[in-house]
Amino acid sequence: MQKTAYGGLSLPVRQGNRLPAQISKVMRLLPLLLITALVSVHAAGIAQSVTLSGKNLPLKKVFSEIEKQTGYVLFSNKELLSRSTTVSLAVKDLPLNKVLDLMLKNQELDYVLQGKTIILSGKPPVPSAPATSVQAVATLISGRVTDTEGDALPGVSVQVKETQKGVATAADGSFSISVAEGNTLRFSFIGYTPREITVTADMLKEGKPALVVKLSRASTKLDEIAVTVSTGYQTISRERMTGSYSTLQTKRLEGKLQPNLLSMLEGQASGVAITKEGKVEVRGRSTFLANGEPLVVIDGFPAPGGLETVNIDNVESITVLKDAVAASIYGARSSNGVIVITTKTPKIGKLQIGYKGSTGMTLRPDLSYLNKTSAADYVDAEVAYYNSDVANITWDYEGIATYGRVTQLLVMKDQGLLTEEEVNAELALLRKNNTMDQLERNLFRKSLTQQHNLSISASTDKFSTNSAIRYIANQGNMKGNSNDRLIIDLKNDWKPVKRVSVKMFTNINFTNSKTPIDAADMLDFTNWKIMKPYYNVVDPSGNPLNVPAVRPDLVERYAAYGGLKSMDYNPLNDLTMATTRNQAFLARLGGSLSVELLDGLSAEVGGSWTRGSGMTRSLRDANSFFVRSLYNAASSISTPGKHYLPEGAILNETRSQSEAYTLRAQVNYAKNFNNVHRLSVIAGSEVNKDLIDNNTAPARVGYNDQAGTFATFNYLDFNSYAYQPDFLFPEGMETVSIGSYSLRDNRFFSLYSNGSYEYNNRFILSASARIDQGNLFGTNPKYRYKPNWSVGGTYKLGQEKFFHVPWIDKLDIRGSYGINGNISFTQGPFLLIAPGAFSPVTGGIPYSISSLPDNNLRWERTMITNIGTDIRLMGGRLNLTLDYYNKLSKDLLAPDFIDPTYGRFMITRNAGTARNTGIELSLESDVVKTGDFGWNVFFNGSYNKSKVLQFNYDYLNPNYLTFSYSNTILGSNAGAVLRTGYPLDAIFSYRFAGLDNTGTPQYYSDDNKKIYGNELAVKDMVYSGTARPKYLLSLTNSFTYKRFDLSFMLIARLGAVFRRDAFNGDNIEHKEVALRWRKPGDEAHTVYPKLAAFSTDAWYFPYTGMMIEKQDFMKLRDLTISYRPDNKLWGNTGLSNARIYLQGRNLWTLTANKVGIDPEAIEQGLNMSVRRTLPLMPEFYIGFSVNL
Amino acid sequence: MTNRKYLLFFAVILLMGSCKRFLDVKPKGKLIPSSVTDYDHLLDNSGTVELNFLDGNKGSMLAHLGDNLEMTEGQGKVGYLLSGHPNLERYYAYIFRQPYKNPNTDDQFWSSGSQGIYPQISYFNNVIEGIRSIDQKTPEEATIGRISVAQALVARAWCYFNASMIYGPVYKPGGDNSAKTIPYLVDVDVNKPIPNLSTTEEVAARVLHELHEALPDLPVRSSWPSRANKATGHAMLAYYHLFTRQFDSVAYYANRAWTAAGNPEAVLYDYNKFKLADPSRPLTSLLVSQQDAFTNAVNSREILFYRATERDAGMGASLSYPSAELIALHDQARDLRFSFFYLNSAGYKTTMGGGYDDGMRISNYRFRKMKLTDGFSWPEILLMRAEGYARTNRLDLAIADLNTLRQYRFKTGTPPLTAGTQDEVIRLVLEERRRELPIGGFKRFLDLKRFTLDKGKPWSKSRITHTIAGQTYSGTVDSKDFIVPISNVVLRFNPNWGIPLETRPY
Predict the structure, then answer these.
(1) Contact between residue A1062 and residue A1050 where contact means Cβ atoms under 8 Å apart
(2) What tens digit of pLDDT does each residue of B315-370 get?
(3) Do the domains spanning A21-122 and A223-345 agree at the CATH topology level?
(4) Of A81, A705, B139, B416, which sits with the fewest C-beta atoms within 10 Å of its C-beta?
(5) How far is A1100 from chain B (nearest CA, A)?
(6) Which residues form the TonB-dependent receptor plug domain (chain A) (predicted)?
(7) Closest partner residue to B118 among A691, A841, A900, by Cβ?
């Protein structure tokens, strides 16, 4: 189970009470024993008699032999065993109880047999000298000791403090002991929190029911002993880590229902942020252009499939490695932190079957949140829009098949086809419609999700296996939207011969998803899109209706041609006729063989191999509006009846394959010298290969999905617009995809080593180094062999003899420094060129220069200094971890501003520097812990401050500071940019100076003059804050009362700003269009500019300081109530540990902005203006888990 | 135990030994050009043919300096000013308000993102240098390589020659050509400094040299009009000599180019055979020709060398009209270019800024129906030959060429032109040239500049005057008014050029 021999060596040794060596040896095995013991093992068919002989055997050894022969396991605690002495025995086929009697004869120990468990307890001490002073009248009191769930606890030591008399409870938990009024009864039992009860007169009265004493588990301490940290390369006890990491505790994972792994991570580890885009960030952003996501390692190997491939109910632990010491072993990919996930390992014992399932629902989205214009306002705005630039819109109108009905009416009026009255009458009707409301009811729905997990595990000493199957089905909140996933995990461990162990694991993922292709268009009322908020999309009984989106003259032209498809457009029906389906399969296989060569020296070879394949099919049905439109448009004028597009569906299909493997050979050495010096070293090498091979086929036209047939087609002529002049509607021409291909073959070879030395259980020093070589980077020998490395140290101050603070159990001080790397695959020492799609302009495939050669490129480096402390206070009641870090990221790939005469305005060089500093605090406390009631508080807080120290791009155009042109070129992100001297993802704004009397926004220049948008320069902009929250806080409260558990998590993100959406002059779909400037004088009471079909107001106005809002928010992310029914309920069905869960998510939100925006539901896409996305709605889940 | 140790040792050695070969694999999915064909692909980059001397929305302030366009008050006050038009430089050019372009942002003619000539030149330089640096070439490869290099040289020469006279004064044969214009960059290494500015003289000399260097290797036919062929090389030389005013050379090279066309029908559309695809919609309808279906495509038979030109110039909704002078130059009854392209339609109209309505105006819709080029069209070759003949007093030949073209442009039955005096013939040729070439882009702009050397001739203008809202603005052709200054962005990188920064406000 544990890789190193020192897995659980971490019991705090109390000052001035250091134990003799032998005892600490026994203690070392205790955690193992305890874990084993805690799992009630029923090994059937094993004899209950014992054969044993030997001299001076340690008790522990005897018990392990007994366990082997009888299947009975020992349940004990360290204190008890520490009191034991060795025994000499020679028994043959003696019943167990006889053997135990013999063994414990001369020990201060007693035992009880319960089921297959031997429970060790202290012998009632021999009564000391008769009590002197007041001779209280002794009365016999009887009672029963149980756990919090009411199950009897046998072997509990019951002691009268005053008299030192004691007994142990019987198998049914009952006891009786003589006491006097005022005496204190002390109940103590291994693994449980001791309890003291003062005897009152009332308790001793005749006829009183027997006393019931409940003991609650001392869970914290037990966890502490067992916890190890897996770095993927090795498993180290928590006590011996010098680096900074966070481990998610299994018990916390089990206490809730988890919709997915990301939500499981959120709030559980300080310094780990889940961005609103669903990305994981560890300790801020430490790169500009390269990948910023942490490396995901599953069961020891980097997993290319990502976090979704993990079965969350089959996770044993998740560790986030945050600093250099923790992560530098991953070398060139560790700059962003590493998430190490280990899947469950079977517990020793019989076959175990578990089930956990849940079903949930998310409320139908509230579309009013999107702030879209009402039908009436939209009609008015569309009229004004038309009038603002009649000639252009009329020209535009000629070129598009569909146009808003309002514009159609206006054009027809201008052409004399309709009278003013006719137009006004129809406009009045359109004003009354409510498309948003109809869509909310008829297009959206509650989204439903269900998840099932079935796990089976079994283990013997030579073989253990764990398997889990998880099925997740989600039905999206928009009709026609669904996805499901099946995850199969299988893990086997063998120990074929002594000193050899073999592990194998398999993870298989199947996913399916379905999305309507035009889903996003349904709520997009931008003026060049088909949908408008004034169409009736359903009739009063909810049947989908056609909407008059197609220009009537085009319909007539097609009708006159004859034999063409209908141009009716029915948005709701049409949505289902164009669907993208995605199917993917991913298998990850891995294994390792480890051999113990010498005492402390072991060698290991292993690897993992991932193979994925996927298929994405976007099918537009022959009857979909898109296909009908293109078919009609592409009808030949010269040869009536000839169609340049064959009749049938259009299919776009991508088939993709991926493969990746990691092979590793590693030597581990660990040795303990005289219990004072402890050395542990690993060294190894790794090869890594990552391939993709994706083929997007040319679009199949004239496709028949029933038969799989398609038509021949001349892609070249069609896409070269050769047929267009003969098209019935040339403007309706759309090119069809000719497909694409993408390949990748990235390779790495790495050498690594790390080691730690511990002196006298107080000082730990660790160091690591790694060299990575890739097949793209680094021709310049200067940079070729630069290793990533780290050093770290821990000082266990709490272990010092001079340290006497009774309420501090542990006080460790850690420090580390090191260098982590990060890579980008987009540049290299070669000139790189890349093909595009066929160009009718050059009659060929255009190639572009994607990167200029540069042999000075190197991997990005992040130097992390970390100082931290781990403190445990008040008997484990309060655990606290505090870390300070300083991450200096250097040589970041960044645009270097060059003379544009070179043909480009910048080139990417290792020319960036950024710093992240921060403080992280993690705190856990059992605030209240009594028999029935427990209250646990878990807090994670982090503060991060970032600064761009070097970024050589000199912004020339103010738009580059607001639009996010390209995140791969300038590293800008959703309207937030990089600029020297400012935090990462800084937001810049213009200073608004009101509207002038034409409704045109004015701004203040840096010298406070009023200027127009065109005149704005970068120097006129002001810094408005950063899009990165400085504070990430989460607080989980868990309450236990009898069989009920309640927990809720509050999360908060503070210190960031965001830009809100606004009417900007031409986005008439925005509600605020109604508040716009209309006539001179309006500028006195509105800030929203004039409406113009053609204006650059929209380039500047939305980016004024007015639109900046505080991003701060707090959410009740989840609330879970669970109930554990009494095991007796199941009778002898074998079912146990059942749990019923009720969970709500996103139930309550508190935001700091004045405009009612949920900062998690607003976005600014690449080159797009700010918009609101569908709001996060409350989610409700009900779940059930049970073991067999 | 020892065995195990050896085994492990062996395994590690094996892993490390194979590492070299493992890493030597070229990264897949990334194309590192290594063959002639790889470099040749760069010449198919559409940016290298579409993004020259045009602004962001693909118009050109150069045409707005000239005499082909006219702007109304509404277009200027609302379309450009009140709307904060992104290409305000066109309006500023129209009213000769300097600086025309924002001096503190990237110049889109020069280099801005992938726009401008220098990004294109970096492609051509990479092709030339890349192919030349391949050591081992098979004879076939060497041949293809020479073609690609020659095509890149012509493409680069085209950029530099035009740029030199857009960023500097027109070439004055025998006169002072010492004005420093542009850096003649031929290197691909971005770590090497940008060379000093070349003079008009130096650019002219170098362009001539490189054209002659390329000429023998140019293919007789190229795959697409985006690439130069032999005729392009000759056309380029003819064009070059329009500016050196060696008109016999113009006639010679234009003749060699034109001869490659075979017969006129192969390279000219007969407008008499055009039909509107949808006569009910004359504005938007495309043209159908019996000759082929490529009238509106780059591989149109009339295009010899394709370089994108301004699209919407002279279209009312796009904020300009053809000038009255240009309209007056047309024989409205017989010139089919007029009847197909110059269409009366609703002009600019808006409720903004107090409201403007230009009413019905003639707009130019040629861009909608025909593919035009700022490179070389076959009609231009014919017209260059005609100009060469006319200027060297071979008037009959000149008139014959004009009549050849007019046969394809004017209604059948239109009487052919007859020769008059030399100046009359030159004027006829140049008027035909003005009607035939794109009204936007830089062709007319450069013609206006070179005609300043014909001082006193009817086609020569020293000043251009524009009127808007009753106010007139004028600019001198042979002066800074017709020169695009180098952006401050570039000047800041090159203080050694000694050009002061533009400090006037934009």
Answers:
(1) no
(2) 999 999 999 999 999 999 999 999 999 999 999 999 999 899 999 999 999 998 99
(3) no
(4) B139
(5) 10
(6) 240-338
(7) A900
Q: Please list, in sequence order, all residues whose beta carbon lies within 8 angstroms of the beta carbon of residue B153, skipping any fewer than 6 positions away.
A: B124, B128, B210, B211, B213, B214
ipTM of the complex: 0.92
> How many Cα neighbours within 13 Å face the side chain of A624?
21
Residue B491 touches chain A, beta carbons under 8 Å: no
How does residue A162 score in pLDDT terms, banded at 50, 70 and 90?
Answer: confident
Q: Taking residues A216-242, what's their average pLDDT?
A: 59
Which chain A residues are Cβ-neighbours of B12 within 8 angstroms? 665, 685
Q: What is the DSSP letter of B80?
A: I
Pick the CATH number of A223-345 from 2.170.130.10, 2.40.30.10, 1.10.1200.120, 3.30.428.10: 2.170.130.10
Nearest by CB to residue A900, choosing from B15, B85, B106, is: B106
Q: Where are the domains of chain A?
A: 21-122, 139-220, 223-345
A324 pLDDT band (50/70/90 cuts)? confident
CB nearest to A901's CB, from B25, B86, B111: B111
Which has the higher per-residue pLDDT, A926 or A383?
Answer: A383
Amino acid identity for residue B313 in this structure? A
- What pLDDT is stored for residue A83 in this prediction? 60
B335 assigned to some structural domain: no
B194 to A834: CB separation less than 8 angstroms, yes or no: no
Please give, rounded to a whole number of angstroms, the shortest distance from the CA of A285 to a CA of chain B: 27
- Inspect the interface and report whether the beta carbons of A1000 and B82 lie closer than 8 Å: yes
Q: For residue range A569-599, what is the model confidence (pLDDT) as tens digits?
A: 999 999 999 999 999 999 999 999 999 888 8
Band of the pLDDT at A875, cuts 50, 70, 90?
confident
User: Which chain A positions have a beta carbon within 8 Å of B29's beta carbon?
Assistant: 692, 742-745
Smallest CA–CA distance, residue B89 to chain A, in Å, is: 11
User: Is residue B231 in a domain?
Assistant: yes
Residues B506, B98 contacting (CB under 8 angstroms)? no
Question: pLDDT at residue A444 above 60?
Answer: yes
* Residue B40 C-alpha, separation from nearest chain A C-alpha, in angstroms: 9
Q: State the CATH number of the domain containing residue B78.
A: 1.25.40.390
Tell me if B193 is assigned to some domain.
Answer: yes
Q: Which of A398, A833, A904 sits opposite B284 (nearest CB)?
A: A398
Q: Give the C-alpha separation, A863 to A849, whole Å.
A: 33
Q: A1000, B44: Cβ pair inside 8 Å?
A: no
Query: Quick one: A139-220 is in which CATH superfamily?
Result: Carboxypeptidase-like, regulatory domain (2.60.40.1120)
Tally of structural domains, chain B: 1
Nearest CA in chain B to A901: B118
In a domain, B278, yes or no: no
CATH code for the structural domain at A21-122: 3.55.50.30
CA distances to A302, A305, A343, A1046 from A660, in Å: 9, 10, 20, 43
Tokens matching residue A87: 């025994």
Locate the chain A residue with the closest alpha carbon to B296.
A725
Tokens found for residue A36? 């084993």
| Enclosing domain of residue B172 | 36-243+438-492
- Closest residue of chain B to A906, computed from CA coordinates: B113
Cα B251 from Cα A765, distance rounded (Å):
87
CB–CB contact B111 A905 (8 Å): yes
Pairing of strands A1031-1041, A1044-1054: antiparallel
Whether A3 has a pLDDT exceeding 60, the answer reads: no
SS (H, E, C) B233-279: HHHHHHHHHHHHCCHHHHHHHHHHHHHHCCCHHHCCCCHHHEEECCC
Tell me phi and psi for residue A575, to 5 degrees: -55, -35
Q: How far is CA A1141 from CA A104, A474, A936, in A?
A: 45, 19, 18
CA atoms of A950 and A892, how far apart (whole Å)? 9
Mark yes or no for CB contact B29/A692 under 8 Å: yes
